[in-house]
């Protein structure tokens, strides 16, 4: 879309050079032909170094937009970002793309569906009920068990195993709300990348990124009934037990271990080689490595054990 068309769409004042907007992105990752936005004061510091060609801002923030970058001034930048996100959402399927390619030695059930533009590697097994969307790539020697669903543009590595009922690439839980309590869907136009040698249990959901990629790094092991929200990063060789949940944009370091029913709040960073007992609730970022934690809110595991022992004595 032309920038002038976007300005009209969201009711923003627009002055300056018009250009074709290729897509939307974060302030940090945006290029000169992309649109970004600022909906939180903590991101104002990123405006000056952003390469975005235009930024959706409010009256209080427009003064920080540098020369050479167009400011689209609106009352509610987050709401208007949601409006624009729908315009850059791709088709659900690319019906005009070339037919899917299937590598040598791969076996695809007649009851599976492989969309146009998809690519399946060598020696894969694709079982009944599997759906592989447009522009999805699946590496060599990968197994997709029955009813696995992989939305468009996602990438699955080599030597992966994905068990029945798992969904990869669905939209994250993202929406803008206005003063009336109404909600506007934010279209998630990124993808999910599953690197090599990853095993994912049954009925797990991994959401696609709003912009960019949700990443499950090589060697990771995910149990059944896990939820990975949009834009998360799971570090190499991490292990997540059943019913663990990661809120949006949380990042786990290498070899993180989470017991069953653990949870991580959004936008947190966890240092490598940390272990969390079952039902741990991670509420802040962790910079130290090699620790063991437990409880909600989480604390040192030994301290948690002492507290539980004292509580037990109180009721005797």
UniProtKB/TrEMBL annotation:
GO terms for biological process: lipid A biosynthetic process. One of its GO terms (molecular function) is UDP-3-O-[(3R)-3-hydroxyacyl]-glucosamine N-acyltransferase activity. GO terms for cellular component: membrane. The active site is at 230 (proton acceptor). It comes from the Bacteria. This is UDP-3-O-acylglucosamine N-acyltransferase. Belongs to the transferase hexapeptide repeat family. LpxD subfamily. InterPro entries: Hexapep (IPR001451), LpxD (IPR007691), Trimer_LpxA-like_sf (IPR011004), UDP_GlcNAc_AcTrfase_non-rep (IPR020573). Its EC number is 2.3.1.191. Pfam families: Hexapep (PF00132), LpxD (PF04613). Homotrimer. Pathway: Bacterial outer membrane biogenesis; LPS lipid A biosynthesis. It comes from Sulfurimonas aquatica. Coiled coil: none annotated. It catalyses: a UDP-3-O-[(3R)-3-hydroxyacyl]-alpha-D-glucosamine + a (3R)-hydroxyacyl-[ACP] = a UDP-2-N,3-O-bis[(3R)-3-hydroxyacyl]-alpha-D-glucosamine + holo-[ACP] + H(+). Residues 18-85 form the UDP-3-O-[3-hydroxymyristoyl] glucosamine N-acyltransferase non-repeat region domain. Catalyzes the N-acylation of UDP-3-O-acylglucosamine using 3-hydroxyacyl-ACP as the acyl donor. Is involved in the biosynthesis of lipid A, a phosphorylated glycolipid that anchors the lipopolysaccharide to the outer membrane of the cell. Keywords: Acyltransferase, Lipid A biosynthesis, Lipid biosynthesis, Lipid metabolism, Repeat, Transferase.
